[in-house]
Design a protein that fits this description.
3 domains; 6 helices; 9-stranded antiparallel sheet; extended; 29% strand
Length: 350
């Protein structure tokens, strides 16, 4: 009997010690995990050195400007009081070009016909073909048979009656109308689908469309579809308010007159083919901007003072073909001011 009592006693002690051991292990594991997190927060591991896998890179070709910083006075008023320190390296992505396709013209003719154009091509240059609309001569399609980029446009400057109907869609409806069109023709890549969409309203002024503040005042509605951010870095075009793919809708119920303009300028990015490169210090980029070595994407709407409030890294997505998607320093300021400076160190630029 005593042996049974002793067995029960030692069994209970063993269970208690086991429970205590498990609890101690869990607590120690939690404290160790917190210690590791705190350690890497205070002492983050150094990133691997740049690999320069593409060798020297071609210089970014910004649109020509007579004198980028002419007449501007630059002021730096960031939260830090200085130019914030940027990463020492960034990723560069390869942008492949489409190979020639013997059936490209036939495919383009099919595309034109689906858009209700006369499929008879009119060659404007080696790669550019124009398609007309016999019913609406002011409506045209210009298509690059190599890149697949194109523009559909109705020459509203010569026919303001296209704005007589006012059945403009609500913002979300306009977005979905644009997306549905792209999906229908299988030209809605993932980095556009995962990107942002901007809706703006336009009003006819003489023979131009100018921005207005509300749908009720608008004669047309613009939808811009931007690429997604890459590595938490936003992607910028030469005109920051204009995306690579954009629609301008009228209020017309006529299918042909509904899309006033569709501009599709999309250069694919190979996200699996990349390299890393060293970046110049942000202080150097700030100095280059003041010295006229940057690109002013948007001048201040008021005055000649460019007051910079924010400096960060982004990517430059040109409307013209480029071999690589490269990082830029973005300088953002008051009254819409926005400027770009190439971020890769000059030692690795051609």
């Amino acid at each position: 009997m005593s042996s049974l009592t002793e067995t029960a006693y030692y069994t209970r002690k063993a269970i208690n010690w086991t429970i205590l051991g498990v609890i101690s292990y869990i607590i120690l594991r939690m404290f160790w995990s917190l210690f590791i997190i705190l350690w890497f927060t205070i002492f983050p591991p150094k990133p691997p050195p740049p690999n320069h896998a593409f060798s020297r890179l071609p210089a970014i070709q910004f649109p020509a400007q007579a004198s980028p910083s002419a007449g501007l006075t630059f002021q730096l008023q960031t939260i830090q009081g200085t130019v914030p320190i940027a990463s020492s390296a960034a990723t560069v992505y390869f942008m492949p070009k489409a190979a020639p396709d013997l059936l490209a013209l036939n495919k383009t003719q099919d595309f034109a016909q689906r858009l209700l154009f006369d499929p008879t091509p009119i060659q404007e240059s080696k790669n550019i073909y124009r398609f007309n609309d016999a019913e609406l001569p002011l409506r045209r399609l210009r298509y690059d048979i190599v890149s697949g980029n194109f523009i559909v446009r109705y020459a509203f400057e010569r026919d303001a009656s296209i704005f007589n109907e006012k059945n403009l869609p609500l913002e979300n409806a306009a977005k979905m109308e644009a997306i549905n069109f792209l999906q229908t023709y299988n030209i809605y890549p993932d980095d556009l689908a995962e990107g942002t969409t901007k809706i703006s309203f336009l009003r006819l002024s003489t023979d131009q469309l100018t921005p207005t503040t509300s749908l009720s005042q608008a004669d047309a509605e613009r939808v811009d579809l931007f690429r997604k951010s890459i590595n938490n870095m936003p992607v910028f075009t030469p005109k920051p308010d204009e995306a690579p793919v954009s629609f301008i809708f009228t209020g017309s119920n006529d299918t042909k007159k509904r899309v006033l303009q569709l501009a599709y300028t999309y250069w694919p990015i190979d996200y699996q083919t990349w390299a890393t490169y060293p970046l110049k210090p942000s202080t150097q980029a700030w100095q280059e901007l003041q010295n006229g070595q940057g690109y002013i994407a948007h001048y201040p709407t008021t005055g000649n003072t460019a007051t910079v409030r924010n400096v960060y890294l982004g990517y430059y997505d040109s409307f013209d073909p480029q071999t690589y998607l490269q990082p830029i320093f973005v300088f953002e300021g008051d009254y819409g001011f926005l400027a770009y400076v190439p971020a890769i160190t000059v030692d690795w630029m051609q």
